[in-house]
Amino acid sequence: MQKKAILRKKLSTLGVDGILITDLFNVRYLTGFTGTSGYIIITSKHALFVTDFRYKEQALDEVKGFKIMIEYNERSREIKEITDKYGIRTLGFEDHNVPYSYYNKFSKRKIKLKALTGVVESLRVVKTPAELSFMKTAVKRAEAAFRKLAPFIKTGVTEDNLALKLEALLKQEGCKTLPFGVIVASGFMSALPHAKPTGKALKEGDLVVFDWGGECGGYYSDMTRTVLLNGKNISRQKELYNIVLEAHKRAVNSIKPGIAAAIVDAAARDHINDKGYNEFFGHGTGHGVGLEVHEDPNVSWRTKEILKENMVFTVEPGIYLPGFGGVRIEDLVVVTKHGAKSLNTLSKKLKIIERQ
Fold first, then answer.
1. Which contacts qualify for 50-57: CB closer than 8 Å, 24 or more apart?
2. Which of residues 124, 151, 172 is at a domain's end?
3. At CA 32, angle to CA 31 and CA 36, rounded to 5?
4. At which of 68, 103, 124 does a domain end?
5. Is 131 helix (H, G, I), strand (E, B) or coil?
6. Looking at the 3D structure of the chain, how many domains does it have?
7. Closest by CA position to 316, among listed 253, 235, 222, 176
8. Which among 11, 248, 249, 259 is least buried, having the fewest CB atoms inside 10 angstroms?
């Protein structure tokens, strides 16, 4: 069933005559439009895509199955005219993407509004074969870039130098955009889950966390690998790595359709807790990835999400010891009938880099 047909079936249940979609990721998901200005209104009989003059030709090329309209008036006024023309008495809107200033304008124009939560996101959470294909390529590009970076990871090189090089390699592999700024964190900096690269030079005994992602067709990948620079007294670094690796394995092995995402989180968290590091793993075990690098499902102890076949999310347990260092291992997995399948091929075996 077409995506817009699914939305149309939900209109009566949602208690609206039309749905206004303004989130550009949702707009892209429904129409294929890649520009930065546009919105959708869907009713039981009509599907409208509205953009401004700058994107007229682009919309004609990219958007199929929608009536394309060019707006010439202030947006709230344009939407009011559409609701009047198409007999929309109650217009549903995305509660996360309409600022109060616009809500106020709609109210002044006497548009009856109803806030909606996750209407399109509930469709996006289960990936189509085409989406999975894009994401597999995004993973492939990310891994190819990292393999090319590997010879440059050594003592003396700085975090920001490695980050810049990896970003350039990702672009060379075909990534038009990056999901986020590359993270390279070494030594004590690796204890910061979202550390930004600095001028700190890598040194012997450092754990080095690399967190990066690729892109294909607007879809992203996200992965993390931690390496260790050889040195004296690295037994604790190895211990941390092995604990996180086992937690990762347990989480992946727990995945199957029909279970709560919280069970996956518990599989990783319980192992880390049992080893005495419960206070040093404070984030969720994973998150969905797709058109955005953070989307549903949320894989943590807080969620009530139930896993479904073809959901795609990260599995990324970690341990972070302030002043010492941290380890995170992250793969992108897809839920299948028989469990989880990792989209990654890059080894998770601890790589110990010898002095060069």
1. 50/78, 50/82
2. 124
3. 95
4. 124
5. helix
6. 2
7. 222
8. 259
- Quote the pTM value: 0.94
In a 10 Å sphere around its CB, with 0-12 CB exposed, 13-18 middle and 19+ buried, how is residue 233 labelled?
exposed
Task: Name which of 51, 85, 48 is nearest 67 in CA terms.
Answer: 48
Strands (E), 159-214: 183-186, 207-212
| pLDDT tens, position by position, 43-101 | 999 999 999 999 999 999 999 999 999 999 889 999 999 999 999 999 999 999 888 88
State whether 11 and 64 are in the same domain: yes
Q: Decide: helix, strand or coil at residue 178.
A: coil
Pair (113, 133) in one structural domain: no
pLDDT in tens, 244-266: 999 999 999 999 999 999 999 99
What is d(CA 81, CA 91) in angstroms, rounded to the nearest whole number? Answer: 13
Dump pLDDT digits (tens) for 273-302: 999 999 999 999 999 999 999 999 999 999
Paired sense of beta strands 47-51 and 39-43, if any: antiparallel
Helix (H, G, I), strand (E, B) or coil at 354: coil
Q: Alpha carbon of 87 to those of 72, 301, 350: distances in Å? A: 21, 44, 62
**Identity of the amino acid at 60:** L
Q: What CATH number corresponds to the domain at position 8?
A: 3.40.350.10
Place of tokens 């030709």: 57
Q: Quote the distance between the C-alpha of residue 62 and its chain's center.
A: 23
| Residues contacting 90, CB < 8 A, separation 6+ | 15, 16, 17, 18, 112, 113, 114
